Amino acid sequence: MYTLGEFIIDNRDRFLYSTESLLRLFSSIKLAAKAINKEVNKAGLTKTIIGSSGIINIQGEHQQKLDNYAHKVFIESLKSRNVVCGIASEEEKNFIMIKEENDNFSKNEYIVLLDPLDGSSNIDVNVPIGTIFSVYIRKSSINTNITLEDFLQEGHKQILAGYIIYGSSTILVYTIGNGVYGFTLDPTIGTFYLSHPNISFPEKEKIYSINEGNYDRFPIGVKHFIKYCQENKGNRPYTARYIGSLVGDFHRNMIQGGIYIYPNHSHSPNGKLRLLYECNPIAFLTEQAGGKASDGTKRILDIKPSSLHQRTPFICGPINMVNKFEAFMNKSKI
Ligand code: P6P
Question: Among 26, 49, 56, 286, who pairs with 293 as Cys (CB 3.0-4.6 Å)?
Answer without folding.
Answer: 286
